[in-house]
Amino acid sequence: MDSRQDDFFGSLAGPFGGDEIFDDVADTVYFVKDAEGRYLFVNDTLVARCGQKSKSDLIGRTAAKVFPGALGDEFESQDRDILAGGAAIRSKLELHIYPDGRQGWCLTWKRPLRGKTGEVVGVAGISRDVGGLASSPRGLESLATVMDHVRANLDEPLRLSDLAEATGLSTYQITQRVEGLLGLSPKQYINRCRIDRACHLLEASDDSLSEIALSCGYSDQSSFTRQFGRIVGMTPGRYRGVKGQNLS
Fold first, then answer.
1. Domain housing 69
2. Which phi and psi (to 5°) does residue 120 adopt?
3. Is beta strand 89-97 parallel, antiparallel or unpaired with respect to 39-42?
4. Looking at the DSSP assignment, which residues form a beta bridge with residue 94?
5. Are residues 184 and 217 in the same domain?
6. Is 173 helix (H, G, I), strand (E, B) or coil?
7. Which of 77, 69, 70, 67 is CA-nearest to residue 37?
8. Would 202 be classed as within a structural domain?
9. Fewest CB atoms within 10 A around its CB: which of 38, 98, 170, 173?
10. Higher pLDDT, 137 or 218
11. For residue 133, what pLDDT is reported?
12. Cα separation of 21 and 84, whole Å?
């Protein structure tokens, strides 16, 4: 952390968890969790959707203690994976079922929080309601299948026709739904997922650049380097060096 940031946060009257900013955002859940997956900061939206009266009703509890059944177990599994060094979650389409029985589709982001020596000490994330999308709940469920298939098969060639065959949707339906939800073409979404995985591997592993290229679906290191440079603005080697300096 920059010394100016240290000075700024040290001057505050109390800890800044970011939840106050999201308290008035009714369509977005916000949270910060500790190394055990327990809530440290939550916004009012999460409190309301869990049927609680105040933030203190959630602080210190894990997702499995807050959300019902398999849903809480899934959220806690995500937390454990990230806390163990797994990849961040970016724009994952999920069906949320809240303790009062309401349900809705959300896009979720989660990322690790690191300590001064680089160790993962917590998780922060948001889940934003999916609204205004010209698609039925069934259409969103099929879109979630497309997105999950992409993430699970990033080391393979992912042509639009292959996605259609794997998910039972037409290429037109896939294109329409991905663009409607994310504002990206299917190809752009696949490229972003590949680069997201590459960034995680560059930060969290000692794999060679050629190994990372293959695991992210690139035929060779040179094509990986070109694509990474176009999207990230630096070479993979430079990115790894910068991230290593930030954690040292």
1. 14-129
2. -80, 120
3. unpaired
4. 106
5. yes
6. helix
7. 77
8. yes
9. 170
10. 218
11. 47
12. 28
Of the candidates 115, 105, 192, 177, the one whose C-alpha atom is nearest the C-alpha of residue 146 is 177
Question: Which parts of 85-235 are beta strand (E)?
Answer: 89-97, 103-114, 120-129
In this structure, what token pair is assigned to residue 187? 């190809």
Q: Please enumerate, as own/partner, the contacts of 4-10 that have beta carbons within 8 Å and a separation of 24 or more.
A: none
The tokens for 106 are 């959300």
Alpha-carbon span 36 to 64, nearest angstrom: 12
Beta bridge partners of residue 113, listed in sequence order = 122
| Pair (242, 143) in one structural domain | yes
Q: How far is CA 81 from CA 60, 87, 220, in A?
A: 19, 8, 29
User: What confidence tens digit (pLDDT) does each residue in 63-109 have?
Assistant: 999 887 788 888 999 999 999 988 899 888 887 877 667 778 889 99
| Cβ neighbour number for residue 8 with a 10 Å cutoff | 12
CB 75 within 8 A of CB 63: yes
Q: Which of 182, 204, 203 is nearest to 193 (CA)?
A: 182
| Predicted confidence band of residue 245 (pLDDT cuts 50, 70, 90) | low
Say if residues 163 and 170 touch (Cβ distance below 8 Å): no
* CA 113, chain centre distance (Å): 13
162-176 pLDDT tens trace: 899 988 899 999 998
Strand order in the sheet with 89-97: 39-42, 28-33, 120-129, 103-114, 89-97
Give the pLDDT mean for 235-244: 84
End residue of a domain, out of 103, 129, 155: 129
Q: Within a domain: residue 199? A: yes
